[in-house]
Amino acid sequence: MNRLVRTSMFYMIFGLVSGLFYREFTKFNNFTGKTQLSVLHTHTLILGMFFFLFVLLLEKNFKISQQKNYRKFYLFYNIGLGITILMMLIRGSLTVLDYGALPALAGIAGVGHIIITIGLFFFFFTLLGAVSSDSK
C-alpha cells in the first residue's frame, strides 16, 4: 500500500509542478494560444494521483495486489501514462516555442494511450478476480 501512496504522491507533485510550469512558461514566452500544457496539470492529477488513490482504496478493501494481473496492470498503466504525459509536455512546449507539429509525437502519444488501455484491461481483470474471490 505504501507503493500506491508514493505513486499517487509522485503524480500529485508532477501535476502541481506542471501547472506551475504551464503558467510561467507561457507567461515568459508571451504565449496566449492553445497548448497541451494547459491540460497536462489536470490529466496528471486525475489519471495519476486520483486514480492511484482510488486503487489504494480497492487494495485496502479487496487486496487487489494479490491477484495475478496486478503487476501487469501497475506496470502497463504507469508506462502508458508516463509516455502520454511526456508527449503532452513536449508537444505543448514546442507549441509555445512556435515549432511546427511533429507527426512522430502524435504517434508516440498514441502508443502511450494504447499502453494505458492495456493497463486498464489488466486493472479490470485484477478487480474482477479480487471481487470474485472476496464474494466466496
UniProtKB/TrEMBL annotation:
Entries under Pfam families matching the protein: DUF2871
InterPro entries in the record: DUF2871 (IPR021299)
Keyword Transmembrane helix: yes
Keywords, in A-Z order: Membrane, Transmembrane, Transmembrane helix
TM stretches of this protein: 7-25, 45-62, 74-94, 106-131
Signal sequence region: none
Keyword Hydrolase found: no
Protein name per the record: DUF2871 domain-containing protein
Taxonomic lineage of the native organism: Bacteria, Bacillati, Bacillota, Bacilli, Lactobacillales
